[in-house]
Structure formats: structure tokens, C-alpha cells
Amino acid sequence: MLATFQDWAVNFQRKIIHVDMDAFYASVEQRDDPALRGQPVVVAWRGARSVVCAASYEARQYGVRSAMPALRAERLCPQAIFVPPDFSRYKAVSQQIRAIFRQYTPLVEPLSLDEAYLDVSHSPCCGGIATEMARSIREQIFATTGLTASAGIAPNKFIAKIASDWRKPNGQFVVPPGRVEAFLTDLPVARIPGVGKVMQARLQRLQVSTVGELRSLPLAQLEAEFGSWGRRLHERARGIDERAVEPFSPVQSISSEDTFAEDLRLEQLEPPIIEQAARTWAARGKTERVPHTVVLKLKTADFRILTRSFSPETPPASQAVLTEIALALRERVNLPADTRYRLVGVGLSGFQDPAPMAVQGELFASPGER
């Protein structure tokens, strides 16, 4: 096991850029409708089952955030202007942005419509200087789309993603190899991907709240406490991330889950199922691929995990359909009535590329129909 980031970096000299568009959906709406500029814009349908897809920076000043229930966003910012999402328009802009990325490197890994990793380690652009490439990419995005982007430049994906958030909006931040551990030391452990509220609580019991404090724990103790995840924590605390940028990694599944403050009975799960279905559907809007299976995940108070799934004849085409199926899957849980549940999750899986139906229709049309 390599002891430090510097040891690891000797063997892996990479230059990774993480580009993240600024309030992407809301910014597209403000670009296309001048009346929305400078206004608190919330991209979401109104209604009890709706969730915020994006919020402009003006709306964020009131505490509105992505994945928040729309009703809560409305309470936080009564003057917000709600705009229904137009994913076909966002996808078209995203394709323009990805075309810009490919001018700098073929190693582009999109995470969603509005963010991507770029491995520019061997790119000859801008004299091979990653910070100049990031600046050039952001300038080209603005010239082409009228939108701003932020970027993080670092030796790996983990650090680059954190860095891209450092000078938002419309900024960039570089973490050179020699500064990785110092950069991480004072960050809260919540900045490590996968460390949610439950993991934070477990780490707090070990008197760990920052990455630096996590770094002080020996690997053996972390593995004893967290199993295989302990090794991942040990590596991330040192800024080590050996994952390659994967240009071809199509979405296979999307899910959202939440651990309750107190355990609930099965009949009490309808509101959290509705909320997680909304979050999953909002995330589904970030991919062009089509899901075919709905998954309901439950974890009992004694940590037993159950999943129920259903693949309808027609792929789920709306948040309402996803919610309906997820609630129906709850009826297939046949544990004793007094069973308590500590977590619920709703997912979509079985993603496939959309079938080119219109093209096929023209291909097989009879001569008289053409």
C-alpha cells in the first residue's frame, strides 16, 4: 500500500479536468428568456410530487437546491419563478459542450448533461498545460453557448471534482500534486463521495469530522470498522484515486435512497417513497438512455436489505408512473406487520439506448407510403 499521495503520484502523473456547468438548466432558461435574467428561477413542475431539477444562483440565495421538494422550494422563496424542465433543449446544449471537450482530448467521461471528466495528460493543446486548457474550454463554452462553466484541475478525478466547486460560478481552481494532502486536510469528511449522514455519524463516534482526522486512523482500524469501504476511506484521505477516465461508460442504473431519523413501519413509507422517486426521476433527466425496470429497496431495522423490482411492458415515461410502480412494489413486501424499516430507496435500471423508431419506420415503409 502506498503511504502518501506523493508516492502514488510518482507512478501516476495524470492531468484531470472536471468541468461543471453553472446552474445548467436554470442558466439555459435565463439565456433563452431575457425576462428570467437576474430572477430566482426554479426548474421544476409545481405539485406535491415534484422535485427541483435546478435553481438559479438568485434562487439559491434563499436556500433552494436541486433535488429539493418543489413545495419546500416554494416556501423558501415565494417569489421564485417556476419553469418546467425542457430536457430536449438541455441535451442539445450538452451535445455542443461535449463537442468542445473532444477538441481537447478523446478521453471524456460525461457524468450527466452538465458535467464531465477530461483526461488531458497527453493532450498537446495549450502547450500541454492543463490549467490553460481548462480556461480555454470555459471560454469556448461561453462563446458557443452563452453559458458559464467552472473547472477543477488535479491529478485525479476525486480531487478534480472537489476543486471544480471551489470557485463557482464561472471560475476554476487547480490542486497541484504537491498540494493534494494539504488541500484535503481541513475539508469535512462529507466532501468524500459516499460519506453521507449515516457514515458521518459513525465517523463522528470515532472523533473524525475532517479529512485530516480521518487520515490519522490506521488502515486496520478503518477496515475493522467499515469493511472494504475502510480501504477506500484510507485512500481518499490521502488523495489517492486510481480510477481512469472512462469515455464509454453508459448509464446502467440511477437511484436515490434515504436513511430515516427513526425507524418506520411499512404503511408509513409512502411519503419517503414519493420523495425518493422524485429525486430519481430528476436524475434520470440527465441521461438520454431509457430505463426499463423500477427497483424498490428497503433496509430493515436489523440491517436486512430487501429489493423488489418490476419491468413494465412500456418503460416508465414520467415521474408519476415511476412513483405509482414504486408504491405498488411496497405491496410485495410480506414481512411481519411489526417490522420496522430504517432506509428506503427507489431506482431505475436496465437502461438502454433509445430505439431509433422514426428511422425504422421510414426504412420499412412500403413504396406507396414514402
TrEMBL record:
Keywords, A to Z, come to:
Cytoplasm, DNA damage, DNA repair, DNA replication, DNA-binding, DNA-directed DNA polymerase, Magnesium, Metal-binding, Mutator protein, Nucleotidyltransferase, Transferase
Q: Name one GO molecular function term.
A: magnesium ion binding
**What note does UniProt attach to the cofactor annotation?**
Binds 2 magnesium ions per subunit.
Record: active site: 115
What are the binding positions for Mg(2+) in this chain?
20, 114
Q: Any one Gene Ontology biological process term? A: DNA repair
Q: Where is the UmuC domain?
A: 16-196
Q: Which residues form a coiled coil?
A: none
Q: Which cofactor does it need?
A: Mg(2+)
UniProt catalytic activity: DNA(n) + a 2'-deoxyribonucleoside 5'-triphosphate = DNA(n+1) + diphosphate
Residues of the site described as Substrate discrimination: 25
Q: Which GO terms describe its cellular component?
A: cytosol
User: Which InterPro entries does the entry link to?
Assistant: DNA/RNA_pol_sf, DNA_pol_Y-fam_lit_finger_sf, DNA_pol_Y-fam_little_finger, DNA_polymerase-Y, DNApol_IV, IMS_HHH_1, Rev_trsase/Diguanyl_cyclase, UmuC
Relate the protein's function as given in its record.
Answer: Poorly processive, error-prone DNA polymerase involved in untargeted mutagenesis. Copies undamaged DNA at stalled replication forks, which arise in vivo from mismatched or misaligned primer ends. These misaligned primers can be extended by PolIV. Exhibits no 3'-5' exonuclease (proofreading) activity. May be involved in translesional synthesis, in conjunction with the beta clamp from PolIII.
Give the multimer and partner information. Answer: Monomer.
The molecule here is called DNA polymerase IV
